[in-house]
Every structure is written in C-alpha cells, then in structure tokens.
C-alpha cells in the first residue's frame, strides 16, 4: 500500500488547494489564544490583536484571536467528507490583564464555533500533562482566598461531520476490518482521560524548534489516527508546525496533508516525517509485541481467547480483530521537497531503514 505525506505552505485559513469532502480526518493543535508565545502569530493574522492586548482588553483580544481560528474550522468543515472526524488539541489559557487574573476558555469557544458550523460534538478527552516544577502553583500558596487551581491538562475535542461514516462496499468493509485495533488498545485509547502519553515515542523527530512550536507528542496524533481513520485515508493538519501529525500518519499507513504558514518549519517537518519512518517498524512492532505480552498474561490467568487473527497468526479477543493487520513503512522517497511517498507492508515483513536511505524497495 502506498501513501503520500505532503506539506503545503500557506495560511491555514485558506485551504484552497484541498478539494471539498476529500479528507477523512483532521488532527491538529492550533496556536492557543491568550498564551503569550502565540500573540505574534495572531497579530499577523489580525492587526487589531496587538492594540487590544496593549489596551489590556482581554476578552476582546480573546475573541479576535478566535475569529481567526473560526475561518480555519470553516475550511475544515468544507474539506471533511461525510462522517469524517476532527480532533482538536487545545488548552485553556490563564493571564493577567489590567491587574486581573482570569481563565480564557479556549476549549469552550471552539466548541461553540464547531456547533455553529454544524459539526456533531462527541465526548472529548482530557490529556493530563502533570508537571513537577516547584513553582507550578499560582497565587498565594498556602493562604486562602488568593490561590488558583493549577492547570495540568489540555483537551482533545472530538467532532464528526454529520452522521456516521458508511461502509457499504465489500472493499470498504475489508479496509475497515484490516484497520482494526486490538481489544486492549481500545480499552486504553477510548478512555476519557489520557495520562500515559510519555516515553520514547515523544522523541520522534524531536528538534529545538519543537519547543517554540508547542508541538504535541507523536503518540497523541498516532493514537487518534488509528482510532478514527482507515488505512489509506487522508489526514489533514492545518497547523502542521514541525510535522508531528504528518509523521504519525506516515507510520500509521495514512496519507496526510499539512498546512504551514512559516516556511522555516518546512525542512523541520519533512525531517520529522523521515525520522518517524525510520522508527516506524519499531513503533508498529511494539504494538504487536504488547499484544503478545497481553496474551501471555491472559494465558497465565487461565483465560482463553475465542478468536484467531489471520494476518499475524495469533489469538484475539473479538471477531472484529480477526483481519486486523499492522502495517509498517518499508520504503519511502521524496517526490519533491515537500512530499514523501511511502510504501507499507505487514510489520512482520518490514525491515527498518535508516534516515537518508529514501529509495523505495
């Protein structure tokens, strides 16, 4: 199977290059309104943002920033196919303006915008991001009536374009079965609180620019892509940044499109994809080994599995896992400076390849 990972340079508010209803999943993390590190980005989109912040008109600046994002969500609504999903990682902001400290409710404002666009709102995920920094607490510490709750979570807001996606043809049903995930992955992934997104996978494609971009860890889009799309689907990230969503899609056997305004991020994003591809066999192989460990523990506990998976010749819990096949990148090449074409095969037949070795097998 072949996929293409493509980066488009331009303003995310104008996704003109993408046809209507051609994307099955949007996974993105936009600039967070009222977080100071993104003030310049919003001022570039709307010159009124700077004067509003200078005047300490917090709510007016907040609304101006979100009106910029509203245009992106409208474009996402246009390019998403019926039944397609949008997953938006966003954090609320805390800020002092005019001598007043307050919360700016980014997630609620985006929810309202998506409802206005006709999206179906689905249960969200709280991504818990604990910190051990000694100065993480805000306010007067141990003195009542002056301290504030410390934010250690962000949201993954989930939306669907209309009703459920239909799978009527034999080919569509087969692709859906092949794209299944393991029973134990379902139990972990579909929890409403994620606190396990840490470890080596977060380092895929890691660069100094990642701190400046506020990028999420590789595991977050990788998990969402496996949960909400099929092999061969197209995933869009309108705020591509350092390319984490594109990298996750490449490893997961999906095509991707990324929109990025800053040309400086382009080489970083494409290098992130290549770095992830070099570790793709390891990432997908880890999923298979985790299932084997799960089976060993289940056998030791005296519990049997009623079904058998054909592509990997191993027991599974449900009938929906019988045709599940984990694919991994086998080879890839640059179609042009901003596009990478990837070949995928069963992970047990794939061989790891180093970064820089880009010819397809």
Layout of SSEs?
Layout: E1 2-9, E2 23-28, H1 39-45, H2 49-54, H3 58-79, E3 80-90, E4 93-97, E5 100-104, H4 106-116, E6 120-128, E7 138-139, E8 147-148, E9 153-160, H5 170-178, H6 183-189, E10 193-194, H7 209-213, H8 219-228, E11 234-237, H9 244-252, E12 255-260, H10 266-278, H11 280-300, E13 307-309, E14 314-316, E15 327-336, E16 339-346
Parallel strand pairs: 1-12, 2-3, 2-11, 6-10, 11-12
Antiparallel strand pairs: 1-16, 3-9, 4-5, 6-9, 7-8, 13-14, 15-16
What does it look like?
This protein is α/β, with parallel strands linked by helices and 361 residues long. The protein is globular and about 65 Å long. Helices cover 33% and strands 25% of the residues. The protein has one domain: Vaccinia Virus protein VP39 (Rossmann fold).
**Multimeric state of these chains?**
single chain
Would you give the CATH topology? Rossmann fold
Count of DSSP H/I helices: 11
Total beta strand runs: 16
| Low-pLDDT segments, ≥5 res | 199-212, 356-361
CATH class: Alpha Beta
**How far apart are the termini?**
12 Å
Helix proportion range = 25-40%
CATH architecture: 3-Layer(aba) Sandwich
Beta percentage is 25-35%
What Rg is obtained from the alpha carbons, in whole angstroms? Answer: 21 Å
């Amino acid at each position: 199977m072949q996929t293409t990972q493509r980066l488009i340079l331009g303003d995310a508010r104008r996704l003109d290059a993408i046809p209507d209803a051609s994307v099955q999943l949007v996974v993105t993390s936009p600039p967070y309104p009222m977080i100071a590190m993104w003030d310049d980005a919003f001022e570039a989109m709307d010159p009124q943002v700077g004067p509003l912040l200078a005047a300490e008109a917090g709510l007016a600046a907040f609304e101006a920033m979100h009106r910029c994002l509203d245009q992106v969500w409208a474009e996402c609504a246009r390019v998403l196919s019926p039944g397609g999903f949008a997953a938006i990682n966003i954090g609320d902001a805390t800020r002092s303006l005019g001598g007043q400290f307050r919360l700016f409710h980014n997630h609620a404002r985006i929810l309202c915008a998506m409802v206005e666009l006709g999206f179906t709102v689905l249960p969200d995920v709280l991504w818990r991001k604990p910190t051990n920094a000694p100065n993480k607490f805000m306010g007067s510490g141990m003195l009542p009536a002056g301290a504030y709750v410390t934010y250690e979570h962000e949201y993954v807001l989930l939306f669907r374009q209309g009703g459920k996606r239909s799978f009527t043809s034999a080919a569509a049903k087969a692709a859906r079965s092949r794209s299944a995930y393991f029973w134990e992955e379902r139990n972990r992934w579909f929890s409403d609180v994620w606190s396990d997104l840490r470890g080596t996978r977060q380092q895929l494609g890691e660069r100094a620019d990642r701190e400046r971009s506020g990028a999420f860890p590789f595991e977050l889009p990788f998990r969402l892509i496996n949960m909400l799309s099929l092999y061969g689907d197209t995933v869009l990230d309108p705020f591509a940044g350092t390319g984490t969503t594109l990298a996750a899609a490449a490893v997961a056997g999906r095509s991707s499109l990324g929109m990025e305004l800053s040309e400086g991020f382009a080489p970083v994003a494409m290098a992130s994809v290549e770095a992830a591809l070099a570790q793709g066999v390891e990432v997908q192989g880890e999923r298979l080994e985790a299932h084997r460990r799960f089976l060993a523990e289940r056998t030791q506990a005296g519990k049997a599995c009623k079904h058998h998976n054909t592509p990997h010749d191993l027991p599974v819990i449900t009938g929906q896992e019988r045709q599940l096949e984990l694919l991994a990148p086998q080879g890839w090449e640059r179609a042009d400076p901003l596009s990478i074409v990837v070949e995928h095969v069963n992970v047990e037949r794939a061989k790891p390849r180093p970064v820089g070795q880009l010819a397809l097998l």
